[in-house]
Design brief:
This protein is an all-alpha fold and 221 residues long. It has two domains: 15-110, RNA polymerase sigma factor, region 2, helix turn helix motif (Rna Polymerase Sigma Factor, Chain: A, Orthogonal Bundle), CATH 1.10.1740; 129-207, Winged helix-like DNA-binding domain superfamily/Winged helix DNA-binding domain (Arc Repressor Mutant, subunit A), CATH 1.10.10. 66% of the residues lie in helices and 0% in strands. It is built from nine helices and no strands. Helix 2 crosses helix 3 (30-52), helix 4 crosses helix 5 and helix 5 crosses helix 8 (168-175). 20% of the residues are buried.
Length: 221
């Protein structure tokens, strides 16, 4: 049996997220909870980073989310989908932290962008030219900044749909909204993002205001 076939067979018989969570509820099963963390740590860190614009803070937030999940494990209801529960807790906790006096979104513009990806993948050569790299970096910055100022109800839908590839029905379950409302918010979120990006990029390419040349600037040396 090949390694890939063995892994496929192993995953087929692996417990579901819900079964692991039930074990955590029943007896505080730390091994089961560790399995859940391994499965979901990367997606939750990624979500927190998209919501806050701060990858370092996202790591702390993800740890706090899992700590809350374990501490309040009795709140998970049988028959519920664990991923829906986890996304919801993550959104609530992250936005609660963003509303604190120290607004972590202020660190967004201080984050290095070398090698970062916004999720809006650019189709470029394997080795971009310096000009292409500069354009990519500026676009990434513009997207991250626009996302950081997008209202929460738009940002949640956009991040879950575009970055995490959740279906509208799944997003509706996470947010506790009708699916039609989620679709409307997605349309409005994309429109608002487009407006913010146009504004940001227009500011970058706008010519400087006219000014009178100083006498020495008109001299031919």
């Amino acid at each position: 049996m090949s390694a890939s076939a063995f892994q496929s067979l192993k995953s087929l018989f692996a417990p579901t997220d819900e079964q692991l969570m039930w074990r955590v509820q029943a007896g505080g099963d730390h091994a089961a909870f560790a399995d859940l963390v391994r499965r979901w740590e990367a997606p939750i860190q990624r979500l927190c980073a998209r919501l806050t614009g701060d990858e370092h803070r996202a790591q702390d937030l993800a740890q706090e989310v899992f700590a809350r999940i374990f501490a309040h494990r009795d709140s998970f209801q049988h028959g519920a989908k664990f991923s829906t529960y986890l996304w919801r807790v993550t959104l609530n906790h992250t936005y609660s932290e963003l509303r604190r006096p120290r607004n972590w979104r202020e660190t967004l513009l201080d984050q290095p962008t070398d090698g970062e990806h916004t999720g809006f993948d650019e189709f470029s050569a394997d080795t971009p030219s310096p000009a292409e790299e500069t354009t990519r970096r500026e676009t990434n910055d513009a997207v991250r900044t626009a996302l950081s100022v997008l209202p929460e109800h738009y940002r949640s839908v956009l991040v879950l749909r575009h970055y995490e590839s959740l279906k509208f029905r799944e997003i509706a379950d996470v947010l506790g909204l009708p699916e039609g409302t989620v679709k409307t918010r997605m349309t409005e979120a994309l429109s608002e993002m487009a407006r913010l990006l146009r504004r940001a990029l227009d500011l970058k390419i706008a010519p400087p205001p006219n000014r009178r040349a100083r006498p020495t600037e008109n001299l031919t040396l």
